[in-house]
From TrEMBL:
One of its GO terms (molecular function) is transmembrane transporter activity. Keywords: ATP-binding, Cytochrome c-type biogenesis, Membrane, Nucleotide-binding, Translocase, Transport. PANTHER family: ABC TRANSPORTER I FAMILY MEMBER 1. The lineage of its organism: Eukaryota, Viridiplantae, Streptophyta, Embryophyta, Tracheophyta. It comes from Perilla frutescens var. hirtella (Perilla citriodora). It comes from the Eukaryota. PROSITE patterns: ABC_TRANSPORTER_2 (PS50893). This is Non-intrinsic ABC protein 10.
Amino acid sequence: MARRKPPLPRLLLDNVSCMRNAQQILRNVNASIHDGAGLVLSGTNGSGKSTLLRMLAGFNRPTAGQVLWNGHDITDSGVFHQYKLQLNWLSLKDAIKDKFTVLDNVLWYELLEGKQGNSMAAIELMGLGKLAKEKSRMLSMGQRKRLQLARLLAIDRPIWLLDEPSVALDVEGTKLLEYIIHEHRKKGGIVIVATHLPIAMEDAMVLRLPPRFPRLMTFVDMLDRGGPD
Ligand SMILES: Nc1ncnc2c1ncn2[C@@H]1O[C@H](COP(=O)(O)OP(=O)(O)OP(=O)(O)O)[C@@H](O)[C@H]1O
């Protein structure tokens, strides 16, 4: 009897490396990510978590290796055109318009997405219901983060790429973040998080990036090794 092939991972990091200014930031990173999976990128400052996340978003190209979506290289322009519609990106830059109300800041994104009817429910779920009609400049840091998360929910795309999503959130906000991640994965969504802070994600893979590779041997290295090679 013919054996059934295992399903392709939705996303595959295939020996991904990255150089910046002649420095090796990432080296031979591999990961298979299936629907419903969670992946936590951890590592010290400067280890390349955001770089990898940006690569997954298609903002940076790998220097070597490839990121495959459904088996296709995301840097191919035809593929990227489709792939980018799958992504929800959240970073420390919140892209919130201060002069818009909280509701409009979510509604605007939802309308651009060609959707409707999700914004208010998302704002309420994130605990901002009473602030919906307020100008966004009134918001605290944690409330701004909640607004960003409300956008994720309203837009509702399958692949979430989250850079430090719990920064500025209080305990309840972090619990809400964990809840929406859990619910999204339950529906088959993928969540990839770069974080220093603990975020509870059941059965998530953890990719711990090593500290950055030194570019040149330092004077101290040379002394330790008894001189240059
Ligand atoms: N555009 C760029 N040009 C040159 N170097 C860059 C660029 N972007 C990032 N780097 C370098 O790449 C390294 C990895 O940066 P990155 O932001 O990915 O790290 P990180 O793990 O997210 O760090 P942190 O925990 O501090 O957020 C850093 O040393 C940074 O200086």
